[in-house]
Amino acid sequence: MHIAIEIVTVIIIALVSGRKFCGKICPLGLLQDLVYKIKFPLKIKTYKADAYLRYLKYLFLVLVFFIRGNEKIEMPPFAYISQILAVIFVSIILSRPFCKYICPWGLALAIGNKIPSTKYKVNTEKCTECGSCAKKCKMDIIPYRQINNVECIYCGSCEKTCPCKAISKKSWLPFVRRQ
Fold first, then answer.
1. Cα gap 151→95, rounded to integer Å
2. Are the CB atoms for 53 and 148 separated by under 8 Å?
3. Residue 152 · residue 120 · CB < 8 Å
């Protein structure tokens, strides 16, 4: 019964907001953003395996929903602590690694990015393809090429950073106002 409630909840959130939840509300996403701001000599923006590692989320989604069943998997406390510390450490080097490679909820919410309440729009006449938006993107997307990508968390970094003001938001819901 609990799994059905979880699935229905995620579907409703996904249809209403898509991955905006990840960019605006998720506490783990906020933690990763804060940790990534720590000064460290090695910061990795992107690398060859990135595109392939993003498929790990599919595996985790299968594990969470279908293999879990009614059995509760008990792990010793040090296992939880070590997982949290690993995410924190990797977050110093990579932007939002948990969101990109592990989070099954983010993958489920990505379905909502196909029909989000708010969409970004790139004005191709204004856009110079300078790459400012791509440098600030927390999910390592190139917004002027991949606007409204399923990985987008609608954090607004691209829109705020664009020196040409070529990226804007548009909502089809009457009660959603521009921020």
1. 13
2. no
3. yes
Instruction: Quote the CA–CA distance of 45 and 29 in Å, as a whole number.
Output: 17
Could you report the per-residue pLDDT of 120-162, keeping only the tens digit for each?
Answer: 889 999 999 999 999 999 998 899 898 888 888 888 899 999 9
pTM of the model: 0.71
Cα gap 162→140, rounded to integer Å? 15
Residue 74 Ramachandran class (φ > 0 left, ψ -120 to 50 alpha, else beta): beta
Question: pLDDT tens for residues 85-111?
Answer: 999 999 999 999 998 888 877 777 777
Per DSSP, the residues of the chain read -HHHHHHHHHHHHHHHHTTHHHHHT-HHHHHHHHHHTS--S------TTHHHHTTHHHHHHHIIIII-TTPPPP--HHHHHHHHHHHHHHHHHSSSHHHHHT-HHHHHHHGGGGS-SEEEEE-TTT----SHHHHH-TT---TTTSTT-TT----SHHHHH-TT--EEEEESSTT----
